[in-house]
Design brief:
- The termini are far apart.
- By secondary structure, the protein is α+β, with helices and mostly antiparallel strands.
- 29% of the residues are buried.
- It has 3 helices and 8 strands, in the order ααβββββββαβ.
């Protein structure tokens, strides 16, 4: 009868240990990348929410200005193209949404223009870190992300429209009649009908 050689057994054990070590390292590395990806996704979600909050706040201010201008300002139609955008409360709104997502707004909401539409760009940093991993320094590293949201006017009107008389707006196929001589704030539709707010691509 033949007996297994002890030398073969001795060579297999180090190989097994070596392969096991490689597999463990790969598993830990995968976990580290998953941690980083999760932190990045959280940061991007926070940035998106903050940018949308800034733009929605600015849209609300546009609606307030438009409401006040109708019947008192012959140039009230200019509010419909977003040119009167002030965004006084945009940074505060973005900061609140960032905080709700455990992040900090960096530098406020910055006015910008995308494809001719006014908007706001924000940058955030998470308050939480990536966490401990086999990659040195991740336990103190915060995720960062940025996003831009734009305010797109949706209404058009006849080129010869008289701002002192009844004006019919076409807001994405929905017709809205505004009579400056007999105007009530309830005559205005939902802000989303007049201006859409969305993330820039």
């Amino acid at each position: 009868m033949s007996r297994p050689l002890r030398g073969d057994r001795g060579q297999t054990l180090p190989l097994y240990i070596w392969l096991t070590g490689i597999l463990l390292f790969a598993a830990f590395a995968f976990f580290a990348f998953a941690q980083a990806a999760s932190a990045r996704n959280g940061a991007q979600s926070a940035a998106d929410a903050a940018a949308l909050a800034a733009a929605q706040e600015a849209r609300g201010e546009l609606i307030e200005g438009l409401t006040a201008a109708i019947g008192t300002d012959d140039a009230w139609l200019s509010w419909l193209d977003g040119a009167q955008l002030s965004g006084r409360g945009a940074s505060a709104a973005a900061g609140r949404l960032a905080a709700e997502n455990d992040s900090t707004l960096q530098g406020g909401a910055q006015p910008t223009v995308v494809d001719g539409y006014p908007g706001y760009h924000v940058a955030i940093e998470t308050r939480y870190t990536v966490g401990r991993s086999i990659i040195p320094g991740t336990e103190s590293r915060h995720a960062k992300a940025g996003a831009t949201a734009v305010i797109e006017p949706r209404c058009s009107f006849a080129a010869d429209a008289d701002p002192a008389k009844l004006v019919q707006l076409n807001c994405g196929g929905r017709l809205v009649d505004i009579d400056p001589e007999d105007f009530d704030s309830d005559d205005l539709p939902d802000p989303s009908v007049l201006f859409s707010v969305h993330l820039a691509e």
